[in-house]
Predict the structure of 30S ribosomal protein S1.
Amino acid sequence: MASNTSMEEFEALLNESFEIDTPAEGSVVKGRVIAIEAGQAIIDVGYKMEGRIDLKEFAEPGEEPNIKVGDEVEVFLRQVENARGEAVISREMARREEAWDRLEKAYADEDRVDGAIFGRVKGGFTVDLGGAVAFLPGSQVDVRPVRDAGPLMGLKQPFQILKMDRRRGNIVVSRRAILEESRAEQRAEVIGNLTEGQDIDGVVKNITEYGAFVDLGGVDGLLHVTDMAWRRVNHPSEILSIGETIKVQVIKINKETHRISLGMKQLQADPWDAVEQKYSLESTHTGRVTNITDYGAFVELEPGVEGLVHVSEMSWTKKNVHPGKIVSTSQEVEVMVLEIDSAKRRVSLGLKQTQRNPWEVFAETHPEGTEVEGEVKNITEFGLFIGLDGDIDGMVHLSDLTWDGRGEDVIGDFRKGDMVKAKVSEVDVEKERISLSIKALDSDPFADAIGGVKRGSIITVEVTKIEDGGIEVEYEGMKSFIRRSDLSRDRAEQRPERFGVGDKVDVRVTNIDSKTRKLGLSIKAREIAEEKEAIDQYGSSDSGASLGDILGAALKGDN
């Protein structure tokens, strides 16, 4: 009876030992390395079970396998016995299970985890987190886009878990979050040690159109293009290159946004401090054209000092033209200082003032009456514009085109490009006007014709035409018209038909109009003048003598 009881107890203990020692498939068990051969480690997992694992499963990314005989390791039991009677085990799967437990805790505690990038996939990279594989999106690799991830491959470094799902086996990590956090800490520390006005060395990291970003040792500052030099800088690449070490001054620090403004020109003397002493008013200097706009051109007098030549101060003669047609960029020009405003850092310059006013020169070299020759530049309804020396124009008014007829009738005889001669009649320097006369080249036939004729003179004319309203007469080639009322003192004799073409008639000059080039003539006025003269000489209208007696006496006296 006692023996039966002891056998039952032994059997129970034996079964219990089987249950304890025999591990379940799909679990992690401990084993001991008993041999290493043919690139594999032979591991005893207990209960007379051995399995083989490739040595590469014991290697960290980028490292050699770290294992030797006698080491105790944890493995994942996939199958108790295979066809060869060996246990099917895996170190990698054991590490994965161990890693998931560790990573879930780190995810819950928001702790960093170490890992190594070992592969590239669509949209990012794969990361080994000590047995578990995670996905690293491309946007989470660095704070700035990474063109070459080669230097990061296989490098053990910290990551932040963004998301994980054990059931689906998904883990998403970020390297950028770690960098931003450390960058923020470093940035705060560096900014805390900086003060406005401090001079510091930095390295140019990036160049844009508006400036350059300079690394000050963990924090970037912006060096704006306007703060690089006192002179005009069209693009930062003119004076800076990426990787270059430069000395800058801290201009402003924004404690809230952690933005730092830097300057280079502040380390140099401000050229504007001596502008008024160096560039006195009306002094002339040579400068270089740096920029051309619709309203003028900027000229650099020295690095950092620019002045504006307004379009109105560029040329004496070229009006309403774009400055680009007068000067070109980088051209050396001579300018005159017209005005300085140091407060606004502005200098007004003049280009035309370095040359003499062409109208003044013309007035000195071409006094009134000087004969000139030029090309017809333009024809308008009121006259001709003639090109003259000094790139200026003179105008011939319609009234100065010809002595004969109207200017409107002869202006059609001229064409652009014709070379014509004229005489200077007036030069107005202030209004920049030159009046010319073509007809002045010849003497005035009207003046030549009337000679010494004055108002009141008696002249002899020839009748050339009979009309109802009077008669047309000619004197020295000039036509005049005597109205019916001026044909005789006697109304009965005021008949045009009593005259014939070719008759010679004595008339009195009543008016000389130089503008209309006409003589006012009258037979009636001559008769009245003769009567008055006879009365004055031979009698009076109050003496009782008749006009016939007086005229008879006058005629007798003449005889």
